[in-house]
Amino acid sequence: MAAAPARLVVLVSGAGTNLQALLDACADPAYGATVVAVGADRDGIEGLARAERLGIPTFVHRVKDFASREDWDAALTDSVASYEPDLVVLAGFMKLVGASYLPVLGRRTINTHPALSPAFPGMHGPREALEYGVKITGCTLFVVDDGVDTGAIVAQTAVPVEDDDTVETLHERIKVAERAMLVDTVGRMAREGWTVDGRRVRLGG
Ligand code: GRF
């Protein structure tokens, strides 16, 4: 009997094109994963609409609706954990998870960043790569920890910077690579498992 598909919870804050790439991949049973819920830190975003159109459960926790950031983090942890995910994917989720979340779900949570870590962490990876003048940048998939884009690296893809790039054209080129990296790597994690030894992540048994 085939193994049950891995349960994915995906967290988003915006357009959700990375989420859509995962949803498309999950339509094939051979992919080995299924999106069981999509969460967000804000309402009215296309990322949530993509899930709603497929009848996938969604939840929203806005920081401003909680007395403290810690309370928000605890509510997020409870909601994500309630779906019993094998893997949580932060796909353009623009918040750092915190002290409630990390001990419960941190080892099962990956995030995608539009730069080649450890270069250009934070919210402006494509802009900072362009301003620095690097000729190669890219995207990084990592296991979340308590830093900003500092976690153990699961996968990276290099992307060239073109002479006439703007922040927008560069970020769009990175996002094409990011979606392919995410789909390929999440599928392998779902089907083959993964181990983390210090900073070194290995896919497969
Ligand atoms: C991605 O480049 C992600 O790495 C960054 O924001 C973008 C999200 O894109 N943090 P989308 O919402 O998946 O289209």
UniProtKB/TrEMBL annotation:
The record marks D149 as: Raises pKa of active site His. The keyword NADP does not apply. It is an enzyme of class 2 (transferase). N(1)-(5-phospho-beta-D-ribosyl)glycinamide binds at G16, T17, N18. GO terms for cellular component: cytosol. One of its GO terms (biological process) is 'de novo' IMP biosynthetic process. It catalyses: N(1)-(5-phospho-beta-D-ribosyl)glycinamide + (6R)-10-formyltetrahydrofolate = N(2)-formyl-N(1)-(5-phospho-beta-D-ribosyl)glycinamide + (6S)-5,6,7,8-tetrahydrofolate + H(+). Residues 7-185 form the Formyl transferase N-terminal domain. InterPro entries: Formyl_transf_N (IPR002376), Formyl_transf_N_sf (IPR036477), GART (IPR004607), GART_AS (IPR001555). (6R)-10-formyltetrahydrofolate binds at R69, M94, K95, L96, V97, N111. Pathway: Purine metabolism; IMP biosynthesis via de novo pathway; N(2)-formyl-N(1)-(5-phospho-D-ribosyl)glycinamide from N(1)-(5-phospho-D-ribosyl)glycinamide (10-formyl THF route): step 1/1. One of its GO terms (molecular function) is phosphoribosylglycinamide formyltransferase activity. Keywords: Purine biosynthesis, Transferase. The active site is at H113 (proton donor). Catalyzes the transfer of a formyl group from 10-formyltetrahydrofolate to 5-phospho-ribosyl-glycinamide (GAR), producing 5-phospho-ribosyl-N-formylglycinamide (FGAR) and tetrahydrofolate. NCBIfam families: PurN. This is Phosphoribosylglycinamide formyltransferase. The lineage of its organism: Bacteria, Bacillati, Actinomycetota, Actinomycetes, Propionibacteriales. The gene is purN.
